[in-house]
């Protein structure tokens, strides 16, 4: 059995940067999986994240089953909804949208998911999820009907409150396909306050932006769109 959280904590302690490729089951074509995974294995990618804001029922499960047969890297669910739970994955980010004030995404969907999660052996990782202003309306914003936050101090304090509440990870999200990623000053101020690992995602499209995020304090970076749009991006981040 894999220990996803422990491994992320250990990587943080050792200063080893982690990189997840995000696959959105709604946009991904299963026939591309073989090549996609082969390419991913040649890079510094350490995790597969699977999830999206709007995914039809059973699509996630199909994708995770297929992915599981092709990789031994950890598969982590990053669900936009209760329908995206698959017992074939290794772990699930149990996301609470701390930047918003929509009770559905703070606690209601979590309660709905309990009867499903009880039937799986997924490692459930309590994760404070913060949507950060990134220039344009993103799918997360639309679906959750919440407003992103932009004040650096508010982001850092919200993240710290999440840590005080017992969350094990903080995810700073600019939104998939964001115009620009979470700023390095937000990452570094948040980092200075937290003892738990920080995930950063949204709008990262180049190796330079990736390195900047690590330098500012991201422990794990998530990239989806850049890989989705251009498989050659894998070649930029080979070992
Ligand atoms: C979205 O943070 C992820 O939740 C990835 O975003 O698709 O912009 O890489 P991108």
Could you give a short description of this structure?
With 239 residues, this protein is of the alpha/beta class. The chain has one domain (4-236): FMN-linked oxidoreductases (TIM Barrel, Alpha-Beta Barrel), CATH 3.20.20.
Q: In the CATH hierarchy, what is the superfamily?
A: FMN-linked oxidoreductases
Q: Average pLDDT, to the nearest integer?
A: 96
What structural class results from the helix and strand content? alpha/beta
CATH class: Alpha Beta
Give the beta-strand count: 8
Please tell me about this protein's structure.
With 239 residues, this protein is an alpha/beta fold. The protein has a single domain (4-236), classed as FMN-linked oxidoreductases (TIM Barrel, Alpha-Beta Barrel). The chain is built from ten helices and eight strands. The chain has an eight-stranded parallel barrel with strand order 1-2-3-4-5-6-7-8, surrounded by six helices. The longest helix has 15 residues, at 103-117. The radius of gyration is 16 Å and the shape is globular. The two termini are 26 Å apart. SN-glycerol-1-phosphate (1GP) binds at residues 22, 173, 176-178, 201-204, 222-226.
Give the helix/strand layout.
Blueprint: H1 4-14, E1 18-23, H2 33-41, E2 47-50, H3 59-70, E3 75-77, E4 91-97, H4 103-117, E5 123-131, H5 139-144, H6 152-164, E6 169-173, H7 184-193, E7 198-201, H8 207-216, E8 220-223, H9 225-229, H10 233-236
Parallel strand pairs: 1-2, 1-8, 2-3, 3-4, 4-5, 5-6, 6-7, 7-8
Helix pairs in contact: 6-7, 7-8
The structure holds SN-glycerol-1-phosphate.
Keywords: Lipid biosynthesis, Lipid metabolism, Magnesium, Metal-binding, Phospholipid biosynthesis, Phospholipid metabolism, Transferase
Binding site for Mg(2+): 24, 53
Binding site for sn-glycerol 1-phosphate: 171-177, 202-203, 224-225
């Amino acid at each position: 059995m894999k220990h996803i959280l422990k491994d992320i904590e250990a990587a943080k302690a050792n200063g080893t940067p982690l990189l997840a490729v995000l696959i959105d089951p709604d946009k991904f074509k299963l026939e591309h999986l073989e090549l996609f995974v082969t390419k991913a294995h040649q890079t510094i990618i350490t995790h597969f994240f699977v999830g999206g804001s709007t995914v039809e029922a059973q699509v996630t499960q199909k994708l995770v089953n297929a992915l599981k047969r092709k990789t031994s890297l950890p598969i982590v669910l990053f669900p936009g909804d209760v329908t995206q739970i698959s017992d074939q994955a290794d772990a699930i980010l149990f996301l609470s949208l701390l930047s918003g004030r929509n009770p559905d995404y703070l606690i209601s969907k979590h309660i709905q998911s309990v009867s499903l999660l009880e039937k799986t052996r997924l490692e459930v990782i309590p994760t404070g999820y913060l949507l950060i202003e990134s220039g344009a309306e993103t799918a997360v914003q639309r679906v959750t009907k919440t407003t992103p936050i932009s004040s650096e101090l508010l982001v850092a304090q919200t993240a710290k409150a999440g840590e005080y509440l017992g969350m094990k990870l903080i995810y700073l999200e600019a939104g998939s396909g964001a115009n620009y990623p979470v700023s390095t000053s937000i990452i570094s101020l948040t980092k200075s306050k937290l003892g738990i690992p920080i995930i950063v995602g949204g709008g990262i499209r180049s190796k330079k932006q990736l390195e900047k995020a690590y330098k500012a304090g991201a422990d794990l970076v998530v990239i989806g769109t850049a890989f989705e749009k251009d498989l050659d991006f894998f070649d930029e981040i080979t070992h």
